[in-house]
Specification:
The protein is mainly beta. It has helices spanning 17-22, 44-54, 114-119, and strands spanning 4-9, 25-32, 35-43, 59-64, 71-80, 87-94, 101-110, 122-125, 129-134, 143-146, 156-158, 169-170, 177-182. It has a six-stranded mixed barrel.
Length: 183
């Protein structure tokens, strides 16, 4: 079950959105294949919570005030203020639930590598994000990789060794390294 977030249509555009931000409201746009872009706004706290809970490229529902049905979207880009990292703007892509999309998701390492503790090896992470392709509801928030099988110094995990959920396709070279243990 995907979460649903409430937004309103936005009439304030251009440089005047600074007044919205000062009032605790975040501007955003919803765009998609063969449809017009819709300017929307939502409370800053709700946008922050959405990003903390789901991140980028995870399916959520956006209910625009006055519309009967929520729209299935993925957050595609976040504009941040460079100094204090405050969110300035969101771009959301409305997806067709029956059409395959591409997304970049984080790679999360789990477990402990015995080679690190037994032999004093150093765990080297070569890949922290990977591009995947699949139906919007089958794209996970992250891809977990267990390092428990790295027993000796020199052991490594490559993209071809990753187990991916059914219906998901990886877009990376099969021999690309994900993680390794080195001396």
């Amino acid at each position: 079950m995907t979460d649903t977030y409430q937004v309103q249509r936005r009439s304030v555009m251009g440089k005047r959105v600074a007044t919205l931000r000062r009032g605790g409201v975040l501007p955003a746009n919803i765009y998609g294949r063969a449809q017009d872009s819709v300017a929307v706004q939502l409370p800053y706290v709700e946008a922050r919570d959405l990003l903390n809970a789901h991140g980028l490229n995870t399916l959520v529902n956006i209910q625009i005030e006055g519309e009967a049905q929520p729209r299935p979207v993925v957050v595609r880009s976040v504009e941040l203020e460079p100094v204090n990292r405050k969110i300035l703007h969101l771009d959301m892509y409305q997806v067709d639930l029956a059409r395959i999309i591409r997304a970049t998701i984080p790679v999360t390492l789990t477990g402990e590598a015995p080679a690190v503790h037994k032999f004093g090896g150093v765990l080297i992470r070569a890949l922290d994000h990977i591009e995947v392709e699949g139906l919007p509801h089958s794209i996970p928030e992250h891809l977990e990789v267990s390092v428990a099988g790295l027993i000796a110094v020199g052991d490594h995990i490559q993209v071809k060794d990753l187990r991916v959920p059914p219906g998901l396709k990886l877009h990376a070279a099969p021999d690309q390294g994900v993680v390794a243990v080195q001396a």
